[in-house]
Amino acid sequence: MSPLYLDSQQLITGMLVSVVGEVDHSNADQLESYVSRTCRPGEPVVLDLGGLTFLDSRGLHALLRLHAAMRQQEATLYLAAVQDVPARVLQITGIWDAMNIHSSVEGAIAAVLSAFAAPVHQSR
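== Anti-sigma factor antagonist ==
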């Protein structure tokens, strides 16, 4: 089993989940269930992937499932600080362009706050 450490912190308008270690076939379900248990439906989630050292196809699938689940809840999943091998996996598979990815946790949190502060236009 690959080592995976997860931690969360409540933000003003969402949740920050830090992912450290490897996400692969042995623990990808753990990531999904942790985010589902920890985060409230409909709130944005920032995944801090700065400590993620490896991502295989099951880990990629877990990220895609989280992304899809959040879209169903009309919420957004933000990926932050993706480095090295995980970044390359996301780029090669084309997922990099399809997801909301930021170079830093601070940038992702700023995007969450910006989206929260944006006015909602109602049709008449």
